[in-house]
Design a protein that fits this description.
Blueprint (H helix, E strand, L loop, with lengths): L14 E7 L2 E6 L3 E6 L8 E3 L2 E7 L2 E6 L1 H5 L11 E6 L4 E6 L1 E7 L17 E7 L2 E6 L1 H10 L4 E3 L12 H18 L11 E8 L2 E6 L3 E6 L15 E7 L2 E7 H6 L10 E5 L6 E5 L1 E8 L1 H4 L15 E6 L2 E6 L1 H5 L8
Parallel strand pairs: 2-11, 6-8, 14-22, 17-19
Antiparallel strand pairs: 1-2, 1-9, 3-7, 4-12, 5-6, 7-8, 10-11, 13-14, 13-20, 15-18, 16-17, 18-19, 21-22
Length: 343
């Protein structure tokens, strides 16, 4: 991880990935998540426990893909092309968990997670996180893994069950198959034992470019449409104003205006990413949150990548992964920019 002062103010073990599974919110500790991928083509052995949706080759190993709906007695529905899989690093194995969508990535205080109500599933439920009237079940991945290990769940013929849940139109089938091939190809050059040491980044769109931000800096995501921005006079055009979050005022930056001097077009997917600093917090307006990915620090500063798009050429770093260009924000440089300090 980059040795920057900002990261010292964030406790990584408090960062959670918020998902939606069957119209209910579930959160998972981000430190246990190796990466988040879009649904791929799965294989179906003849007999597997009913909570296993299929198997997948990942980093040279065969892993189980879990559908929690089967465990939580949630009504099943067909997966679609936008369904996600969270790849989990367990104590003894790697496995995947299917999620209908990725809703949020934010830091929460474990001390305010309420104990779960009694149920047969509370053995792997850490508790309930309450936020503005919304309830999120926080999953204890360690006890979930232990539950699966000891479970005597009856076997199910997945040729008859799970295969029916995948998209069945020709275009979707081709997409899932191609994603699977890309995942296998990507894993060939990755050392399995180095997975835990890789940094996690969240990617997002601004116009036609894909940017990345190290997840350790993320204090929360907020829908632009649900925030009230207070205008501040006599400030640069890239400063949209202030928002109040839990009593703190956060300066909101239009990143597109900041880098390219063009205003961001606000849509229903527009999101504010709050970045935490020991001195102050700021928020970035982005077009859309995408997926997470793993980037080792030495890949960014190996001399092959270069800063672009900014008066301070170190604020954004070009990074190519699987033939796709990402623009990685160098938060230390941005937060130290004189442009952010209004006299």
């Amino acid at each position: 991880m980059n040795e920057v002062t900002v990261s010292q103010s964030i406790q990584e073990n408090d960062i959670y990935i918020f998902t939606e599974i069957g119209h209910t919110s579930y959160a998972f500790n981000a430190l246990s998540i190796l990466e988040i991928i879009k649904l791929v083509e799965l294989e179906y052995p003849e007999k597997m426990p009913s909570y296993v949706a299929g198997i997948l080759e990942y980093r040279g190993k065969i892993i189980h893909i879990i559908d929690l709906r089967s465990i939580l007695n949630i009504e099943t529905k067909e997966y679609d092309i936008n369904t996600h899989i969270l790849i989990i690093q367990g104590k003894e194995s790697i496995y995947g968990i299917i999620a209908d969508s990725i809703v949020d990535i934010k830091k929460i205080d474990s001390a305010i997670i309420a104990p779960p109500p009694y149920s047969i599933y509370s053995t792997f439920t850490k508790g309930i996180y309450l936020d503005n009237g919304n309830n999120t079940t926080v999953i204890n991945l360690e006890t979930l893994e232990e539950w699966m290990k000891l479970s005597d769940d009856a076997e199910t013929n997945f040729n008859q069950k799970a295969a029916r849940l995948l998209p069945r139109d020709i275009t979707s089938k081709e997409t899932l198959h191609q994603r699977k091939l890309e995942l296998v190809e990507k894993s060939k050059s990755v050392s399995y034992r180095l997975l835990k040491n890789k940094d996690v980044y969240v990617s997002f769109k601004i116009k036609n470019s894909t940017y990345c931000l190290e997840i350790a800096y993320v204090g929360g995501f907020y829908k632009y449409s649900e925030t009230k921005i207070i205008k501040v006079p006599c400030t640069p055009e890239f400063i949209k104003g202030l928002i109040s979050v839990k009593g703190d005022y956060i300066t909101i930056i239009d990143l597109n205006r900041y880098f390219d001097n063009e205003p961001t077009e606000i849509t229903d997917k527009s999101t504010i990413i709050v970045v935490e600093s020991k001195d102050f917090n700021i928020g970035f307006i982005v077009d859309e949150i995408c997926e997470s990915l793993n980037i080792q620090t030495n890949e960014l500063f190996n001399g092959k990548n270069k800063g672009i798009k900014s008066e301070n050429k170190n604020e954004v770093i070009e990074y190519v992964k699987n033939d796709k260009l990402y623009l990685v924000l160098n938060i230390k440089e941005i937060l130290n920019s004189e442009k952010l300090y209004v006299g």
